[in-house]
Amino acid sequence: MADSIQQLNREYREYFLKNRTSPEEHMSFLQMFLVERGCTFGGEAMPTLLKPNFISSRQSALLKSHVERMSRALNKFIGLYLSDDRVRGIMGFSEKENRLFRIEPGYRNPLVISRLDAFLNGESLKFLEFNCDSPAGIAYADVLEEGFQVIFRKYPFLNGYRIRYARRQGRLLESLLQCYREFREIQRQFPEKPVVAIVDWADVSTRSEFELHRQHFTEHGIETIIATPQDFEIKRGRAVAGGQEVHLVYKRVITRELIEKWDEVQDFIGCIGSGLVCCCNSFRSYIVGNKKVLAVLADPRYQSVFTDRERQLIRNTIPWTAVLADVRVKYGRRLVHLKSFIPEQKDRLVLKPGNKYGGKDVYIGRETPQDVWEKVMNDHLDDDTWVVQEYVDIPTDEYPEISRSVVFKPKYVNINPFALNNRYSGTITRISDSPVINVSAGGGLVPTLTAEPLEI
User: Fold this and answer.
1) In the beta sheet, which residues pair with residue 415?
2) What DSSP line would sit under 53-112, residue for residue?
3) CATH says 320-390 is which class?
4) How do the domains of the chain map onto residue ranges?
5) Where does residue 243 fall: left (phi above 0), alpha (psi -120 to 50 degrees), or beta otherwise?
């Protein structure tokens, strides 16, 4: 970490410890601010702590470079999957999933919105998984930064720093509209200005973020509704949801969950498949949301589609990953038999399902008893749906816990940069007491802010 960030963190801590009454007031203000602005999770203020994750300008530049290059590589991988039988065999998607993948998006980049979850240790970035199907957090990140911006006016020591803020929702809307413009080059009958539907199930815990998006889109002249997949029907050759004709879908519903309710959502899928709506993300983005992609990306047999810089990035930023199976694979310069290697090297490895989200069923070897570890491996050795990954040291930082006093405690830190149409669009940080870090698994969100000292 840059010396200036270490210094800023020290000043932040010292200010809190010297002004013990202010942090409690500021935390109450922040929670009220989040509730009033609709930044909630499960009906409560978004879980957060009263300190952002400060990063240096060099770290910010590294994130921009790596995220944009990896986003381009993932778009290329989608094309590789569609054209290569061997890759399709490894990824192992079902016939229903492949039916969805065959739907043409109608725009150039099938992966429009992504969140590339990673660990940032100093200037070393390691991507752990790619949240590419329907990533959340863009609007939440903006509101959190707005709240901290207000609070920071009361912190005089920050006057010596330049702090950069992002505005992701504007970039999101522009990305959606860019895809719609490309889609409309073929579908000339569509209006110049679309009606947008934000689509997910009615009972999801992130519904408050849809309201934030609807407000932002509407304020910028784009009529927007919130709908469920079951709301859609085809009327006179048009896509209709809740009686409203729709032209552009911002798809937040998880593709795997659509498949689980296949019979209930046929009109919704039919609207997309028939080209009656432009849908972002496309179903093809789901391909690179599966953690198996980490294993295939690093396989030299399938790297001809990437540039030299993309191949170098893959080598440097993706930890060793293999599809869990009773096979021999290459680990470094040697061949290992996974069935014996995984129990023997438990403390160096992580087991996780390929297609789940929210930190569900992730087993960190050094945190898992041997008998449980081996049972998980054996239970999934033959189903071709899990991956084994090399453990990456989890960054930690100290964050204030505020009740009657202020106590700084170490927390695990996971950085989550966004890419919108291959463009780096800021990041957010998840923190937790648990090494499996996720808001839905009991963690919290804090802003990620680039800070640099002002020249004297």
Assistant:
1) 118, 429
2) EEE-HHHHHHHHHHHHHHHHHHHHHHHHHHH-HHHHHHH---HHHHHHHTS--SSS-S--
3) alpha beta
4) 3-290+395-453, 320-390
5) left
Measured CA to CA, the distance from residue 301 to residue 309 in angstroms comes to 17
Sheet of 224-227, strands arranged across: 224-227, 196-199, 248-251, 278-280
What are the strands, taking DSSP E only, across 236-343?
A: 238-241, 244-245, 248-251, 278-280, 321-323, 328-331, 334-337
With contact defined as beta carbons under 8 Å apart, do 117 and 288 qualify? Answer: no
Helix (H) or strand (E) segment spanning residue 183: helix 168-186
pLDDT tens digits, one per residue of 195-205: 999 999 999 98
Q: Tell me how far CA of residue 385 lies from CA of 78, 94, 359, in angstroms.
A: 19, 11, 16
Identity of the residue numbered 294: L
Q: Which whole number is the average pLDDT over 20-27?
A: 82
How do residues 217-234 score in pLDDT, each as one tens digit? Answer: 999 999 999 999 999 999
Return the H-helix or E-strand segment holding 18: helix 3-18
Nearest to 420 by CA among 219, 166, 160: 166
Calculate the alpha carbon distances from 105 to 219, 260, 403 in Å.
Answer: 27, 22, 50
Percent of the chain residues topping a pLDDT of 90: 87
- Token pair of 22, please? 């202010």
Mean pLDDT, the chain, integer: 94
Is the entire prediction scored with pTM above 0.90? yes
Between CA 42 and CA 30 the distance in angstroms is 17
Is the bond into 159 cis (omega within 30 degrees of 0)?
Answer: no
